[in-house]
């Protein structure tokens, strides 16, 4: 099998912006959608990609754009046999018809932006959907025969009790996902939420919720394999693993990041400028950085530490990290307490 | 010079009552300074003096007025420099008392007037700022008559700002203040009442000749220091320094003798001639002792040597500073410094920061305790970190101040309350006038140095004024409170307090540190302890979460930079045992309570 290589497609359109979101996405540029998808397709074609092992369509809100048109773009990407093709979906938008189109276009994994299964928590996160939409969306995904799906969850929204979070977890588990990503609500600078400190989560509460998630998910066979990701073994997200194992990947679309041979670069941030660059036959790159060997080595350790396989035993002063790491003499891995303090442990990587 | 035509005087005034403005007017009226060269607060040469509106170093100037030679001797205006004031007064036959006609006499002014009376000086009193709408000269003239016995009718009314009445004041100085006495043919006795270091000329001393003649030709002897000196220049300030052949009895001027540091020519020194000189030194010399101590530590440890050099330079011009190297587990290397008082401490710290570009942390001010050990030995201790273990201490004595506070009577209650909480004993309460009260207290110095002045000012909207002097040592029930972080003492926070206050102090510091110390990877107990006994405790709970939730393609560069920043931050932390503390925690925790 050849080296894994992935493609990320960015769809920078949303119906509404959530208060916590710092992604490159716009709510007022829907008129650009057709042009943008066209530019994406041309950008892919001119790049003469080798067959890729994974495709990930994220956003923004990929389900906001015409499903058939989006699939046209995806099909422009050459893939290996058994490649993982994921699309992020907003539960509000998912229909059986859309899922059929996706499935027919080779999509074999859906990542559903659930966030919470409790109404008042969804409202505080400024999400537009209601919990019943999630159930309906999962039914459609299954009916269309998409073999595996992930549920994205967020804990720590304002007003969310530990019981609310348990409800979210239990209802998510009942939907039978093979993969769950559970993220602590993070305050990103410049977001509307950043300006409202009274809505910010408390670290101890987040830690309690993390532990609860880990308990409940492990109990049903969803195994933690990265700080915020749990999967039935064999259903880990291969595309994300690429990021964490310093694999090569290519991002298409505005603000998308790429990595190849120790060089990382990212695209122009706005859809207009991205379209212009493709139209003009120019590079879409905004800026990049070359990683020297030491930076690359450290970054590799920092990323690996977050994963269940950990880092080589010599990379950490184990004696100073009692309770935070365990070792089998070859690798050092974070304990659950250690995962919650991964930054602190990271600072000691050598 | 004809002694009968000389008048030597100081101006005594409270801060802001107009001393510097009056000095400016006198320089103008006597044509000592051309109008075009005039600048405000002419005699206050240090930036700090101008900014704070206080005189730190004494100045003197010679002016002419209607056939008289007047020497104006400008004295330091703060109680911390009381000894300097007494030396300046020793060079005068009279004082001009300046009182704000809208505020009345203040405690320090009063104390300095008593000092003038002790020196048998004539007091010419003037109410200043009569141009102000709020001026009430009749009322305050009556008050001055009551407290000082100066007839209200003899009190002049002036406005230094407008110049109104200042010529009358100069006339009164000539009429009322006696001429100096002295024998020009007797052996030389000259009093040094101030010395300043000039980087080009060395030490320039202000002198008043009592007997004999001072010239730049005869070899001199500094009697208290016991050192011979070769004079280089003798002169008078008009105010521009002007060399003269000699200074005779009653005359005031300056002396330069190639001396490198002011400690060799201290205030109170008697100068005589090396050959055929006086056998007797003038009275009143003493060596002012520091009363307030604190540790000063450079925030950047690399600045230690710079700080040593800076202190050496300051010492050239300020003999009263003491300093010795000190090392603290929490703050690194610095100096234990001694000061005449709190203002002096502030000024020295500010000068170090301003003139030498140092960033400093000051520990809480302390006083010098007398520690009586169980083995009979008595030790002096000005640093809580050096206090012996409690079981080896028989008892401790602490310095006391005799404090007087003058206040409008409506603040009497709140001030008594303040003094009470500071372990004060009231010795007297007197009415200066129907509206104003003078409170007399004995207060432990340690209670005065910790923000007493600010408290007094804030409780009285700034109306109360304070004077104090040392009043010996008293035995007190004192204990050292240590603060332990994760079981290890943080020496910077050790304090000596009265046993009755130890518990409250310990609690307060524990609470404060709990707020300030960032959560660590483990629980950090914060304990306040006397000897081995814990009296207060708080815990900084272990940090439970420090991880990025998401780390996908677009997050990786950001995450790496975040970790690099976190790592840089760690390098700047000070460690006490395993506990890592940002430097500013010490500054915040050592800040006095509001």
From TrEMBL, chain A:
GO molecular function, one term: 4 iron, 4 sulfur cluster binding
Gene Ontology, cellular component aspect: cytoplasm
Keyword Cell membrane attached: no
One biological process term in Gene Ontology: porphyrin-containing compound biosynthetic process
UniProt-listed InterPro entries: Aldolase_TIM (IPR013785), Coproporphyrinogen-III_oxidase (IPR034505), Elp3/MiaA/NifB-like_rSAM (IPR006638), HemW-like (IPR004559), rSAM (IPR007197), rSAM_sf (IPR058240)
Residue ranges of the TM segments: none
Metal-binding among keywords: yes
Residue span(s) of domain Radical SAM core: 1-223
Keywords in alphabetical order: Chaperone, Heme, Iron, Iron-sulfur, Metal-binding, S-adenosyl-L-methionine
Family stated for the protein in its record: Belongs to the anaerobic coproporphyrinogen-III oxidase family. HemW subfamily.
PANTHER family according to UniProt: COPROPORPHYRINIGEN III OXIDASE, RADICAL S-ADENOSYL METHIONINE DOMAIN-CONTAINING PROTEIN 1, MITOCHONDRIAL
Name of the protein described by the UniProt record: Unannotated protein
Annotated source species: freshwater metagenome
From TrEMBL, chain B:
Keyword annotations: GTP-binding, Hydrolase, Nucleotide-binding, Protein biosynthesis
Annotated InterPro entries: EF-4, EFG_III/V, EFG_V-like, EFTu-like_2, G_TR_CS, LepA_C_sf, LepA_CTD, LepA_IV
Cited Pfam families: EFG_C, GTP_EFTU, GTP_EFTU_D2, LepA_C
SUPFAM superfamilies: EF-G C-terminal domain-like (SSF54980), P-loop containing nucleoside triphosphate hydrolases (SSF52540), Translation proteins (SSF50447)
Any GO BP annotation: positive regulation of translation
Any one GO molecular-function label of the UniProt entry: ribosome binding
Family: Belongs to the TRAFAC class translation factor GTPase superfamily. Classic translation factor GTPase family. LepA subfamily.
Protein name (database record): Unannotated protein
């Amino acid at each position: 099998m050849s080296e894994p290589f992935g493609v990320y497609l960015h769809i920078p359109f949303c119906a509404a912006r959530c208060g916590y979101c710092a992604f490159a996405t716009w709510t007022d540029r829907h008129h650009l959608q057709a042009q943008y998808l066209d530019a994406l397709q041309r950008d892919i074609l001119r790049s003469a990609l080798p067959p890729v092992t994974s495709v990930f369509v994220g956003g923004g809100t990929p389900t906001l754009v015409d499903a058939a048109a989006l699939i046209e773009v995806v099909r422009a990407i050459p893939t290996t046999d058994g490649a993982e093709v994921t699309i992020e979906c907003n539960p509000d938008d998912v229909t059986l018809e859309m899922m059929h189109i996706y499935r027919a276009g080779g999509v074999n994994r859906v990542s559903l932006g659930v966030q919470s299964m409790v109404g008042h928590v969804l409202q505080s996160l400024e999400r537009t959907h209601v919990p019943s939409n999630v159930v309906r969306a999962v039914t459609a995904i299954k009916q269309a025969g998409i073999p595996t799906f992930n549920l994205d969850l967020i804990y720590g929204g304002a007003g969310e009790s530990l019981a609310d979070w348990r409800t979210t977890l239990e209802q998510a588990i009942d939907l039978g996902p093979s993969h769950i990503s559970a993220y602590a609500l993070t305050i990103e600078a410049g977001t509307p939420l950043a300006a409202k400190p009274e809505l910010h989560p408390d670290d101890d509460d987040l830690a309690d919720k993390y532990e609860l998630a880990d308990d409940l998910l492990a109990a049903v066979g969803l195994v933690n394999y990265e700080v915020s990701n749990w999967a039935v073994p064999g259903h880990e997200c291969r595309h994300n693993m690429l990021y964490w194992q310093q694999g090569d990947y290519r991002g298409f679309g505005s603000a998308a990041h790429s990595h190849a041979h120790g060089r990382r670069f990212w695209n122009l941030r706005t859809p207009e400028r991205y379209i212009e660059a493709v139209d003009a036959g120019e590079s879409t790159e905004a800026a990049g950085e070359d990683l020297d060997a030491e930076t690359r080595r450290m970054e590799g350790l920092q990323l690996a530490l977050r994963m269940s396989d950990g880092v080589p035993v010599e990379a950490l002063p184990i004696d100073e990290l009692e309770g935070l790491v365990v070792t089998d003499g070859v690798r050092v891995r974070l304990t659950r307490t250690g995962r919650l303090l991964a930054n602190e442990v990271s600072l000691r990587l050598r | 010079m004809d002694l009968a035509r000389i008048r030597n005087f100081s101006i005594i005034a409270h801060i802001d009552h107009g001393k510097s403005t009056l000095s400016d007017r006198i320089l103008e009226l006597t044509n000592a300074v051309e109008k075009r060269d005039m600048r405000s607060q002419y005699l206050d040469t240090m930036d700090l003096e101008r900014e704070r509106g206080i005189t730190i170093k004494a100045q003197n100037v010679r002016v002419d007025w209607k056939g008289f030679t007047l020497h104006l001797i400008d004295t330091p205006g703060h109680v911390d420099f009381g000894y300097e004031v007494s030396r300046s007064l020793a060079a005068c036959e009279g004082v001009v008392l300046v009182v704000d006609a809208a505020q009345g006499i203040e405690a320090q002014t009063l104390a300095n007037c008593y000092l003038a009376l002790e020196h048998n000086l004539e007091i010419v009193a003037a109410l200043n700022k009569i141009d102000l709408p709020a001026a009430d000269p009749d009322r305050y003239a009556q008050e001055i008559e009551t407290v000082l016995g100066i007839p209200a009718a003899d009190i002049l009314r002036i406005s230094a700002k407008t110049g109104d009445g200042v010529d009358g004041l100069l006339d009164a100085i000539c009429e009322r203040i006696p001429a100096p006495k002295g024998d020009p043919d007797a052996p030389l006795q000259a009093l040094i009442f101030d010395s300043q270091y000039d980087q080009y000329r060395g030490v320039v001393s202000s002198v008043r000749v009592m007997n004999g003649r001072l010239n730049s030709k005869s070899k001199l002897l500094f009697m208290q220091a016991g050192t011979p000196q070769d004079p280089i220049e003798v002169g008078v300030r008009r105010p521009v320094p002007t060399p003269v052949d000699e200074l005779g009895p009653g005359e005031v001027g300056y002396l330069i003798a190639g001396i490198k540091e002011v400690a060799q020519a201290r205030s109170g020194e008697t100068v005589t001639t090396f050959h055929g000189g006086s056998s007797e030194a003038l009275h009143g010399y003493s060596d002012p002792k520091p009363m307030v101590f604190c540790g000063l530590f450079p925030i950047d440890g690399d600045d230690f040597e710079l700080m040593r050099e800076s202190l050496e330079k300051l010492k050239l011009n300020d003999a009263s500073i003491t300093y010795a190297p000190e090392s603290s587990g929490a703050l690194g290397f610095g100096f234990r410094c001694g000061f005449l008082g709190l203002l002096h401490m502030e000024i020295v710290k500010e000068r170090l920061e301003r003139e030498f570009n140092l960033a400093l942390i000051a520990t809480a001010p302390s006083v010098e305790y007398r520690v009586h050990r169980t083995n009979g030995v008595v030790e002096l201790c000005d640093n809580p970190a050096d206090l012996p273990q409690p079981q080896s201490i028989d008892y401790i004595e602490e310095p006391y101040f005799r404090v007087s506070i003058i206040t409008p009577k409506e603040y009497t209650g709140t001030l008594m309350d303040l003094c009470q909480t500071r372990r004060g004993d009231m010795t007297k309460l007197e009415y200066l006038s129907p509206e104003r009260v003078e409170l007399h207290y004995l207060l432990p110095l340690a209670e005065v140095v910790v923000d007493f002045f600010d408290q007094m000012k804030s409780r009285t909207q700034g109306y109360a004024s304070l004077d104090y002097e040392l009043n010996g040592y008293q035995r007190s029930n004192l204990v050292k409170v240590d603060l332990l972080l994760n079981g290890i003492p943080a020496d910077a926070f050790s304090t000596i307090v009265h046993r009755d206050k130890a518990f409250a102090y310990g609690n307060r510091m524990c609470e404060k540190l709990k707020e300030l110390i960032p959560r660590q990877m483990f629980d950090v107990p914060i304990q306040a302890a006397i000897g081995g006994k814990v009296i207060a405790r708080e815990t900084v709970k272990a940090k439970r979460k420090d991880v990025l939730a998401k780390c996908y393609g677009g997050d990786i560069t950001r995450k790496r930079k975040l970790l690099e920043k976190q790592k840089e931050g760690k390098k700047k932390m000070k460690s006490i045992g395993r506990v890592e503390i940002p430097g500013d925690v010490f500054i915040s925790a050592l800040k006095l309570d509001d």
